[in-house]
Amino acid sequence: MKKKLGDLLVEKGYITEQQLQEGLREQVISGRRLGELLVEKEYITEDQLLETISDRLGVPQVSLSQMVLDPQVVQTVSVDLARRYTLIPIFAIGNTITLAMADPLNIVAIDEIRYLTGSDIKRAVALTSEITAAIDEYYSIADSLVGIMGGSPEAETGRDEDTAETVETETPVVKLVNLIITKAVKDRATDIHIEPEESRLRVRCRIDGVMREEATPPKKMHNELISRIKIAANLDVSEKRLPQDGRFMTTVDGHTVDLRVSTLPTIHGEKIVIRLLDRRNLLLNFNQLGFSSKV
């Protein structure tokens, strides 16, 4: 009979019996996973939890930050399921898909993906933060938008109102703006360009001096997307004929990012350029500046 997770953590010396009992009492009250509670209380680290889960279940532990995934393998599972269950496909050999999971005991997730793909499923365990980062990296903005919009009636029809109340309650648009900014920051982009064209909405990011095009949201979301950004930057939403400049700040992975926003009227609607100023990029050592570390 396999030992329980808590007993293994005590046996490894990661927690005391008293800390385990405290975690178990809180688990009964909250209904949350024991490991999650122990990490939150800082009794153990995520790495210690993953190592113990791997030992207990006999499943491999993987580091997604050191892996390059095949986009075709990733696309075997929809972004909606990947985000819902915090998992991502990492290998496909024959009719078997290996999933990196934050919770490899989630039988519901395994059964659903087995049914939808028609494949056998193998499990691996990975850090939640690494899985989330991999989802953001390997699923395009358009794919993520499917999960964000969730087939809501508002998303299907699109609305052109520019009032603050409309935009603030348009949760899919808020999530989309957050997704675009978060992905740009993680890709170390310096600029985001949102440009309306005659039949589509174009989103591009400047990374290492090169403009890279992202998969884009539907053209019908243009007005709501622009309005959301203008409200965040404290700009006049009703003014569409004159250029405007503003700024706002946001937090990505616990770090503050300063965003400078510029709007410009075009024949197909307003264009927005967002300049990203990530303060972490300003802290450079001599090697990063091109100098020798030797004095």
Structure write-up:
This protein is an alpha+beta fold and 295 residues long. The protein has three domains: 5-56; 64-134, 2-Layer Sandwich (GMP Synthetase, Chain A, domain 3), CATH 3.30.300.160; 140-282, Beta-Lactamase (2-Layer Sandwich), CATH 3.30.450. Helix content is 40%, strand content 24%. The protein contains 13 helices and nine strands. It has helices at 5-11, 17-30, 34-40, 46-57, 71-74, 79-85, 107-117, 128-138, 141-149, 153-157, 164-168, 171-186, 222-232; strands at residues 87-93, 96-101, 120-125, 189-196, 201-207, 210-214, 244-252, 255-266, 269-278. The protein has a six-stranded antiparallel β-sheet with strand order 6-5-4-9-8-7, with helices on one face. A hairpin with a 2-residue loop joins strand 1 and strand 2. Helix 6 crosses helix 9, helix 9 (141-149) runs antiparallel to helix 12 (171-186) and helix 12 (171-186) packs across helix 13. The model is unreliable at 151-170 (pLDDT under 50).
Write the layout of secondary structure elements.
Elements: H1 5-11, H2 17-30, H3 34-40, H4 46-57, H5 71-74, H6 79-85, E1 87-93, E2 96-101, H7 107-117, E3 120-125, H8 128-138, H9 141-149, H10 153-157, H11 164-168, H12 171-186, E4 189-196, E5 201-207, E6 210-214, H13 222-232, E7 244-252, E8 255-266, E9 269-278
Parallel strand pairs: 2-3
Antiparallel strand pairs: 1-2, 4-5, 4-9, 5-6, 7-8, 8-9
